[in-house]
Design goal:
Length: about 350
């Protein structure tokens, strides 16, 4: 006959009774009836508190200890962890999966947007807990492979022996106005290129990041050359017209060969006066364009390294730019760059 008694946790007093009954060899079924629990509970409990003692004739006798069983129960109770907070909140689970899988959000961005938009769910968890749930494979579809920042192993240090002779006509970042470093007003940009399959071959992307709002501009280049960079800036100047000088007061670049024509980048294609001021980072100091480097990593989500830029149309590049500019950023209190840029733009113009 099936054991129909409800499962319950035994107390220490129950274990004392079990030990006494087991010592006088009472049947398991009788012990279960005395303690008011299922037979399977008694079998598990006997296994939990099992030990061997020596009998009168020095033979090993299987015995049960209430103290051993209680110590095991207490220890396991300390390591079992808290219950999942999102186990039955299917609306929250679905929302997180949709944002990460379809809109390429990070876990922090998902929770940040929920807070910024004051969305209501039965579940409320922190960023660390959400990352832990993804690590534990709580979600049916989302894994660490879908996250923007995956675990990275520290690279071996290699001493750099090569060096680049800087163009004496270039202006160092050390001379850049202090206002550009404060990120309080718009008009100060960082610029870099993103390449496709191999250096110096095929098309590339010119990437500009506004320092205060992290607004992104991405333009296709036929080749990674100084001539193409100047042509792209000319297109931007024609797009923004008279506003260009206010919107692009300074541009900070690295020492790449495509940025060595400082005079060409600063020269306006519309008027005789310079359109912007170019400043150069120190060699091998990409952190001086940190916002730009972060933007490049976002682009690589859609255009992995080794992929030809030619494979992406202008419309697809525009979609990537729009996604970045509408992505909620923690550094902006989970607002998007586009909204913040437009607010500053109204004050400036």
């Amino acid at each position: 006959m099936a054991d129909k008694k409800a499962f319950r946790h035994l107390k220490y007093s129950d274990r004392i009774k079990l030990e006494a009954l087991h010592r006088v060899r009472r049947p398991v079924k009788e012990i279960a009836q005395v303690l008011g629990c299922s037979i399977s509970t008694i079998y598990r409990e006997l296994k939990r508190g099992h030990y061997e003692r020596l009998g009168k004739n020095w033979e090993a006798i299987d015995s049960y200890s209430a103290d051993i069983a209680q110590n095991d129960y207490d220890y396991k109770a300390t390591i079992k962890g808290a219950p999942l907070k999102i186990a039955d909140d299917f609306k929250f689970l679905s929302y997180v999966e949709q944002k990460i899988l379809e809109e390429h959000y990070s876990p922090a961005a998902v929770l940040g947007e929920i807070q910024a938009k004051n969305l209501r769910f039965r579940t409320s968890i922190c960023v660390k807990t959400l990352y832990n749930y993804i690590d534990q494979q709580i979600f049916l579809q989302v894994t660490n492979q879908h996250l923007l920042h995956k675990r990275q192993h520290k690279r071996l240090y290699r001493k750099v022996h090569s060096y680049r002779i800087k163009n004496p006509l270039c202006t160092s970042i050390e001379e850049r106005p202090a206002v550009a470093g404060k990120r309080e007003t718009i008009g100060h940009w960082e610029m870099d290129t993103v390449i496709g399959k191999a250096k110096g071959q095929g098309q590339a992307l010119l990437v500009l990041t506004e320092r205060a709002t992290r607004q992104e501009l991405i333009l296709k280049l036929k080749h990674k050359t100084a001539k193409e960079v100047i042509a792209a800036l000319n297109r931007l100047e024609r797009r923004y017209g008279k506003c260009f000088r206010q919107l692009f007061q300074t541009i900070t670049v690295d020492n790449g060969a495509e940025f060595m024509d400082c005079a060409g980048m600063e020269r306006s294609c519309r008027i005789k006066t310079p359109r912007t001021k170019i400043y150069y980072c120190h060699p091998y100091s990409s952190w001086e364009r940190g916002s730009n480097e972060n933007a490049n990593r976002l682009i690589r989500r859609f255009i992995p390294k080794g992929t030809a830029i030619e494979n992406y149309s202008t419309e697809e590049i525009q979609q990537i730019e729009d996604w970045i500019n509408h992505y909620p950023r923690k550094i902006l209190n989970y607002r998007c760059s586009d909204a913040l840029f437009r607010e500053h733009l109204q004050k400036l113009l």
